[in-house]
């Protein structure tokens, strides 16, 4: 079973990357 703390860090990192991609998409025409 995956460590809960590790999975939370992983999801947080993925979420941050997705937010960055969405922000970049907003800047593009």
Automatic annotation (TrEMBL):
Superkingdom of origin organism: Bacteria
Question: What is the protein name given in its UniProt record?
Answer: Uncharacterized protein
Q: Which organism is it from?
A: Tissierella creatinophila DSM 6911
């Amino acid at each position: 079973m995956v460590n809960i703390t590790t999975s939370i860090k992983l999801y947080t990192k993925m979420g941050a990357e997705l937010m960055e991609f969405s922000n970049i998409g907003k800047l593009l025409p």
